[in-house]
Amino acid sequence: MRSSIDQRNCRAGRQRPLAILVSTLLALMSAPVATFAQSGTADDESEMGLLEEVIVTAQRREQSLQEVPIAISAFSGAKLAQLQADNLDSLQGAVPNLNLVQGRGSNSSVNAFIRGVGQPDALQSFDPAVGLYLDDVYLSRIQGGLFKIYDIERIEVLRGPQGTLYGKNTPGGAIRLITRTPGQDFEAQAGLLVGNYDRVQAKAYLSGPLSDNFALGFSVLYDKRDGFVTDPIDGRDYNDEDTLVARLKGSWDASDSVNVVFSADYTKEDVELTLGRAEDALVSVDLATGLVLRQLPPSGDWNFLTSTSMTDAGGQQTDHWGMNMTINWDINDQLDFRSITAYRDLETASFIDIDASTLELGDVFVGLDQNQFSQEFQLLGNNGSNINWVVGLYYLNEQVPSDQIAFADDFLLFGGVPISFTRTITDDLETKSYAAFGQVDWMFAENWNLGVGIRYTKEDKDYFRTTSTFSNILGNADPAFEFTDSDSWKDWTPTFTLDYNLNDDVRFYGRIANGFKSGGFNGRANSPADVSTFDPETVWTYEIGAKTVVADGRLIANYALFYSQYDDFQARVSTVDPDDIANFRFPVLNAAKLDIKGAEVEMTWMPIDPLQLSTQIGYLDAKYGAGGFTGADGVEDEPAFSPKWTARFFGMYTFDLSGGSQFSLSAAANYRDAMWLSVENVAPLTEGDYWVLDAFASWVSENGRWTLTAGVKNWADEEYRIEGQEFRSVGNIQTAYYGNPRTYTFSVDFRY
Question: pTM above 0.70?
Fold first, then answer.
C-alpha cells in the first residue's frame, strides 16, 4: 500500500493551520468588543470595511445567511472585490472544503469539488457532481463554466447534496451566480484595469427605467492578457486571455402581481493553447522491441517555459450564450407561482496538447456543440405563520454532439521506423431529465423548526459513438468501431432538517440529505472491450452545525460537522494490456464507496471599527470504504482533490481620510494541504501543501463615485499544481497544470 500523501508530499517547515485555528479562536473569543455596525448595501464598495448582513435565497425565499440551516457561503459585490475575483475560480480558498480550479488543458472548463465530491473529467458522458447555476438555470457541462465575475449581485455556495429545492439533483453541492436585476433607479458604471503580462480589462454597466413598469440593464466586459507560458524557441505565448462578455437583462412589472425578468448573455473566448508540464518520462512503443524512452521529465521548479508539438494548432475557442425568462406571479399573500424557462448553447473548438511536449503523443482536437432547454415550475406557499413550502417540476433536454481527432505519430514505431496514427471520433449524447420535488418547513414549537423534502428524479440517455483509425502501416479502418446505447435511471432522494434557535443570535441545526447523480456510458470506448454503462452515484450526508452572531454583533461564527457515505463513485482509469502494449484502454468503473468526514469554520470579526478579520477553515478526511479502490495498477488509492486542510486568513483596515474619502488595505493568506491530482494516484501528479498570499488596496471618494484599486495575487510567486492529466496507457502521459504566477493590477472605476 502506498504511504499517505500527507507523509510523502507535504513540504517541510510549513506550519499546519490547526495551531493557527486554535490560537485564532482563543483570540476571537477573548477580545473586547464595542457596538455592531452593518453595511446598508450589499455590494457598496464604499462600505467594504463594515460587517454586512447578506441576504440569500438558498431556500427559495429571502433570508439572512444566518437564518438558513445549511452550510452555505455567500459573497456580495464587496466581498468579491476583496477577493480580486476575476473568474469563478477566484473562490478557491474562500469556501471551506471547496476545490475550484480551471479544468485541465482548457480555457473555459471548471473543476469543482465540494467536501471531496466532484467530477474532474470534462467528457460529456459524465455529469457534474457540483451544480452550477446562472440565475437559477442549471448548466449541464463543466465546459464554459469558468465564468467571468462581473455584473454579479452575489454568489452562493451550498455544501452538501441539493435537490429538494433546485432544478437538478447534485450530490456535491451547488454554486449559484445571481446577476444584477435593473430597477427604477438609474445606474451607470465604467472601469479600466491594467496589469502585468500586458493585461487590459475594460467594463461598463448601464441600467435604468424605460417606463414606470419596465427597466433594462446592459453590461459588457473585455479582458485581454498575454500568456503565462512562453515557448523559449519561438517566444510564442500560451495560457493567455482574450474574452468578451455581454449581458442584457430586463425587468417588467406586467401587473401589480406579475413580474417578468428576462436576460440574454454571451461569452466569446479566443486564446492560444492551455499548456501544462510533463511530470514523468514519455515513451513510445516499438512493436518490434518494446518500450522506447523518448523524453525525460524536467527537473526542478517550473519556470513557465515549455515547447509544444502543436505550433500550428488553432488554439481554443468558446462561444457560449443563453436566454432565460423568469415569471413571478404573486397569487395572494400566501401563494406565489414561478416559472423559469431557459435555452443555452455552447460551442467549443479546442486543441489540447495532453502530453505537453514536442512529441506527438496525446495531441487532440475536441469540438463540442452543446445545447440545452430547461423548464422549471415552482409553487411557493405559507400559512401566514409557521409553515413555508415549495413544490416544483423540472425538465431538461440536452443534446451534446462532438467531434474529436487524436494525433499520435510519435507513439508507435516498428524497428525504429515511425508509424503514423490518427483517430477520429464522432459521438452524440442526448439526455432528458424529469423531476418533481418539494419541501415543507414547519415551526412546530417555539424556536424549533422541522424541514422535510423529497425529490423524484428520472433521467433517460441515448448515446452514439463511432471511431476510425488511420495509419500508414497498420492500415485504415473507416469506421473502425461504432456502438449505440441507451439507459434510464431513477431515484427518490429525501432531505430532513431540524433547527433550534437558542436566541436571536444562536442557531443550531441538524441535516440529513440524500444526493443522486445519474449513470452514463464510456465516452472513451474504442473497442468492444471498453463499451460499458456505469451506474449512478448516490450519497447520504449527515451534518450538524451552529450559526452564531455574538460579541454585540461584531463576531459572526458558523460551524459544521459532517459525515458522507458515497456509493458507486464513477472513475475513468487508464489500462495497458501486457500482451498488447500498443492497445490503450480507458474503462469507466463504479469504483468504490467513499467515507468522508469533515469540519468547517467560517468567522468574521470586527474588533474595532476600522479593522475586519475573517477566516474560513475546512478539515476533510476522505477515504475509500471497505475493500478500497486499486484502480488499474492494483495499488490502493486515496480520493483525489481532497486536501485534508484548507484555510484562508484575511484582514482589512480602513482609514477615514479628510474630506470623507476612505482608504483600505487588505491581505489574505490561503493554505491548501497536500492532495492527489488524479483518480489513480500516481506520484508525479501530486501537490504538497502550500500557501498563496494576496494583497489589495482601495481608495473610495467621498461620494462613492470614484474607486482606485491596486492588487497583487500570489505575491510570493508560489509554484503549485492545481490539476492533472493521467493517460499512462498512451506514452506514460502524466501532465500537471499550475496555478497562476504573481500578477498585479491597477484599476479605476466610476459609478453614477
Answer: yes
